[in-house]
Design the sequence.
């Protein structure tokens, strides 16, 4: 049975999205009320009230939520399915299970472990997977299992299969915290849960290898990072969060990279937190972040 | 009759706040639905779901809104008054009427006039009032009436009375865009509409005269501005918006002031826009900004 | 004779750059001292002390500067030319002459005119050139000549020739404040002074037409702007300044564009100010900004 | 003998400050040249070229620096002492020795230890001192000595004496990384090295206990942090660095505190790095940060 936390006990998070039409907000609100729920937070957005898309996130409290969940879910199916609306209902006292994949850079990994230890990320972390071993000691000092899955050689399929086997059924989402291997579409299909990636970003964009060297050569005045969901289009998935820091001509490429690491860890942490709190709704290649 | 704009035609903005209890969201949503409204945007916040305060802003579209408004208002009174909830309903195609009061500094004034001319502020500007004359020519170039009300001498009551008479019944809110006279509690009572003020802000705070000189002496690394509603406690009213810009040791007090002017005009403009769009709910000495 | 301002009277700005070697700082400092100058501000940067490039900006005061300039210039030539160093010496009381080219969007233009009127830009503005007429009245209200040079049809050479003729000998640099015509390499050669351009920037970059629509489709969380010198590679010249503002899913493409306009005008103004103050040194496709 | 690092080998950092007069830059540059030094970076600032204060930081390379230091110091004394200028010369390959004092909050402490481990702080850390024990295990995992000095009871003089004894001769500066005991003027005298403190900062300032609760009650839209040198005036010493993060009405006091922790650790880290790199010159109650 999934672990429950005392925080957020008896609170549910309901996500609804689909084609907009009059009355959805009222139907959802009536449903919550007739199921003895009390709205704590409600965010709603319509891309266009006439023929656009509807997005809603509601957190509501409901005494005895665990017992009532099946009834509420049945009511949701009966009420929303006929309207063509997708929905999900989660018990906020059940933290999501998050795996982290990492290569050699530890800055994003340690930031996540640290925030988790401080109680700021509503997740459990059943495992860290790396194609290197340098972070193993740190990870285990946090009391978290570390699995080494080497990814040498041109054929990554064996490594991907082993990673997929480790993740299978054990995690709700995966964070690529500077995991420097390209993942195949087959792997993404096999894993079947959302993956969140972080990568450096510049104005203008520098594509390909050695981006910090190129940014230095171009003399950028800002360095940035983008956290996004992973899709089969590399680095092109829906953006969750972005941020930048200022740079000057006096920064070496190494300085840009070091400074960029602080932006990366902050941006990735926010994206992970929002995902873990069910604040992010994917919609085509965009996200709605409530 | 008030001017209507084509933008936001048939859109209403409903603000509801008061003691939280289960079912408010459902009651409001049902009300909108039974009055043929369709929710465009909904923001809701509870300071504490058990015994806290409830705040909601709903924008909804409703064909033929102008004709239907009295019926909707009657329904709101019947539905929400018994629950002890305060509410307001505005037709979004009717811009608010905004007066600006200013002394000699023109940066905030011109920013507001400019944004208004670009169609970015949903307001009309029936008048500018100043205790000086240096901005008259600029103001009239924008086609806006300018009234000069001198405020010399220790007794400001005559000037305040004349300003109150100019404003009376003609405006929905007043912006103090660097108006450097202290306003009496009697004046605030007489005016009877919200006033928004902008003032410089520093970490730490420097109280009294010559704040930029004091900030220079202390070597601050940030300069800021705060926009707030005016209350009888000078500069202590509910904060609407704040922002900062970086400073260095190389800035003179004049440089700090010049740089601060850009923060002030940006912060005040955002506060004015949010107020004009009914996004700000006052609650004690705080604001909820949706 | 060029106009002089009281501000910065008897202050000179010296820029030195070229291959680094030991002793340049000492040679320049000794030169200033023996010419009765007193250093006010000195910034120096070496890309690499061994075999890299040297950049220096010195502001120094010197009583009777106007009379002494030729002697100082002769000393500079004698001292620095043998070291293979490029240098420029400017009298800071002589403002640079800046032309602005603009199409229909007025936000960058008005910001510059406004800052200029407030005395914050050390420039004179002998002319505004536009391929449209909508900003003419505003420009002339600032007391500045406005020249309309239409640029219709596929052949822009006639328009470019007329613009080049207007600029010839009359300006020290040109600002493209949302001038939406592509300028030919021949035009850039004919003008012979630096041009500064502003354009929107996103993470990731969106190339080609309708960038705000593309940014909306991708759901960007930041919108940015980049000011750069114009080179024959369109939008690829040395970056002077960049900045961003946050965006959310609730922003329409029009909202992104309106918000982006505020970033553009701030970024362009800073770039213009720094150029006008001789703070920017071009070096290949980079800038050093002191 | 002090540990030397390979980074910055043969680089010296010279700080000069005092009353401005013509020729200082030239005298310093000539001195460096005649001692076979080559300027890497030079920053200079005058509060007022006529009768103001002069500040300069020069990094220069000099083969065989360790051997040459005494001669250079003698030359500096002979050259600059007669001009009434204070100066310091440091070998950049010798890291400063930094002690950290901490109470129960670990966020600033861990950020510093982490940056140090990543090689981003040019310091050694001979000891951590705490009046609590909860961080001992983390500290020792980094291989750093942890000393527990309880500070219970009204009389802190015994604890302060023990801390002073531990620090005596062993450190070059002390960081108060959320050390929640007030330090006596006697202690500051006894320690005799600079202390850097971090504290929360708000617009407006909230003085005394429970600042985050007060900030919540006031509805602030920004939360900030200030790093400063410790003087006998509590929290009023020269500011080194400041920054802010945005907050909304939806933040609880606990949320404000958690978010504030991230600002605190970033601001303190930058202040520590700049101090360790000799970039900060104290001048009265201000700092010059190069």
Sequence:
């Amino acid at each position: 049975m999934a672990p429950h936390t005392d925080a957020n006990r008896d609170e549910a998070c309901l996500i609804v999205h689909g084609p907009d039409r009059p009355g959805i907000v009222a139907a959802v609100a009536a449903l919550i009320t007739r199921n003895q729920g009390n709205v704590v937070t409600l965010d709603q957005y319509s891309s266009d009230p006439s023929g656009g898309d509807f997005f809603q996130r509601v957190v509501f409290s409901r005494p005895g939520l665990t017992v009532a969940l099946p009834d509420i879910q049945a009511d949701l199916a009966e009420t929303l399915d006929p309207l063509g609306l997708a929905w999900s209902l989660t018990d906020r006292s059940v933290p999501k299970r998050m795996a982290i994949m990492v290569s050699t850079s530890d800055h994003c990994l340690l930031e996540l472990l640290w925030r988790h230890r401080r109680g700021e990320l509503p997740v459990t972390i059943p495992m860290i997977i790396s194609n290197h071993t340098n972070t193993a000691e740190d990870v285990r000092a946090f009391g978290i299992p570390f699995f080494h899955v080497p990814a040498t050689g041109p054929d990554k399929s064996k490594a991907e299969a082993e990673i997929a086997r480790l993740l299978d059924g054990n995690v709700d989402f995966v964070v690529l915290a500077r995991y420097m291997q390209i993942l195949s579409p087959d792997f993404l299909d096999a894993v079947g849960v959302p993956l969140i990636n972080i990568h450096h970003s510049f104005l203008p964009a520098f594509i390909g290898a050695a981006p910090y060297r190129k940014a230095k050569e171009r003399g950028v005045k800002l360095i940035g990072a983008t956290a996004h969901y992973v899709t089969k289009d590399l680095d092109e998935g829906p953006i969750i969060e972005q941020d930048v820091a200022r740079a000057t001509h006096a920064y070496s490429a190494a300085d840009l990279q070091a400074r960029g690491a602080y932006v990366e860890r902050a941006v990735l942490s926010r994206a992970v937190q929002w995902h873990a709190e069910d604040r992010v709704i994917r919609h085509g290649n965009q996200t709605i972040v409530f």
Remarks:
- Chain B has a mean pLDDT of 92.
